[in-house]
Amino acid sequence: MLILGVETATSQVSVAIGGHEGVIAAVEITRGRRHAEILIPAVEFICQHTGIEMTEFGVVAVDVGPGLFTGMRVGLAAGKAFAQALRIPMIGISSLDLLAFPARHTDRVVVPVIDARKGEVFWAMYRQVPGGLQQVAPPTVGPVEELVADLLARSQEVLCVGDGALRYREEILDGYRCEIGGDAYPSAGALVQLAHAQALREEWVNPREIEPIYLRAPDAQINWATRAVRE
Amino acid sequence: MSTFVRTAHAGQRSSVGPDTLVLGIETSCDETAAALVLGGTEVISSVVSSQIDLHADFGGVVPEIASRAHLESLNPVVARAIVEAGVDESRIDAVAATVGPGLIGALLVGVSAAKAFALAWQVPFVGVNHLEAHLYSAFLEDPTLEFPLVVLLVSGGHTMLIEMQDHGRYRLLGRTIDDAAGEAFDKVARFLDLGYPGGPAIDAAALNGDPEAIRFPRAMMDDSYDFSFSGLKTAVVNHVRKNPDVSSADVAASFQAAVVDVLVTKARRAAVAVGAKGLVLGGGVAANSLLREEILGACATDQIRGFLPSRQMCTDNAAMIAAAGWYRLGTDGPSGLDTGAYPNLRLPLIDPDAWARS
Ligand SMILES: [Zn+2]
Question: What is the pLDDT of residue B220?
Fold first, then answer.
């Protein structure tokens, strides 16, 4: 079964095609134009150069966040439309799972950290288990100090990965002795690999059931004078 | 200045005709909409999912809430438009979506989904200017309209008077220099605690009020066709503060009368000046009952044709997107799959300097 993977939750846009042989093709663009302008041409490109028709896909996999809202929505809107148009199911995977996946061969606790802007980061914690990683602390958003406090509370050997770990390297290393490395961004390559394992178990959903992980409530302050509260 | 260049297939004409079926998608503000339109004028289905309830507590559209709701609603809305049309999706010849102007996050949901539908179905994608689409909404209900037309486009985001000389040939006669008319309605309704959205709330409250109770200022801006509503809004606030016991119904009726007076006077003057064959209303505020009544009355007096699209066609919908998309596909060809969203997109004018002048 061929899987189309679409990943836009950070400043990177990536698209991959996966199958039983692993990643067949992948495109990753970390710098450049906006997500919406790159994503669909990237899908067209990757199909053209692999000679794979859109109708051959059996599943669309998407990164459901947490991440930057605007970017995330570009991938989610496109992924859901692909699935609906092709009448195929979807698999949604968290950006933090994707970021932790390539670091799975360490004995340390893997902590993917995504830059959430506004001085905050998204993070979660994973540990190695036979056959992969297991989440030991759920996705959270907060200031870097809160992440450091969370690391201290665990007092384990830790590997921090992701653009948030790179951006706040000093703050993290100041507060807690750990290793920082691995990938900066979640990738569509990891997405199609993780999705393939789920697809074999038929763990997929209808496009309507794909739930973005925002972790933050929308900013909704509108202050207009009303007659009721006039001076 | 925002530009929207058709890069990938510039200049290439597509064969569109009376049998061309276009799926339109609209997500620029707080309505998630999809429609199927045949041959640019025949509405086969039109589905609009409004988010009004989600924004009511805030008295205005909250961009992040709007974007989240579009992402949730778009797939079911498209599915319903296809089911209601009773056609197989393989019958769809092109996908059109609003690319601007509007809220960036909201626009991106529709543009991204529309391009994905187009790529998956292997049909052209066409990006549509939301303002141009409003001009086309009148043709959906009356394809016999003749040029030149004067269009009064009044909504929560826009207030403009446009001379439509032909398909795709627009001249800007005037526009608001501050608040849009719909924005003034929202703010005054909010101030009077009449509810949200302001247009229908003021319209309803005004029914029980005296439009001559308070003589609010009419900003006629001399001979220009430009509008200004911020002074009127301030006058309403000051009047209520000075007269705390004044009836909200009288304020609403008098405010509405002032807005409509200005809109109708200028639209009418513009129609005479350009020798228009018709005067057309568009945009959400065009659903206002006093405005509809006054425009029709003025047209009857001046003996020109007044055309008021139905309320569903005045407010944001996707049928107008599909109609404008059908037309643009024929003249300009498909848009590139690298098309983005352009929150400040302007109407393509034959006299682009008009923006700077006014
Ligand atoms: Zn509109």
Answer: 84
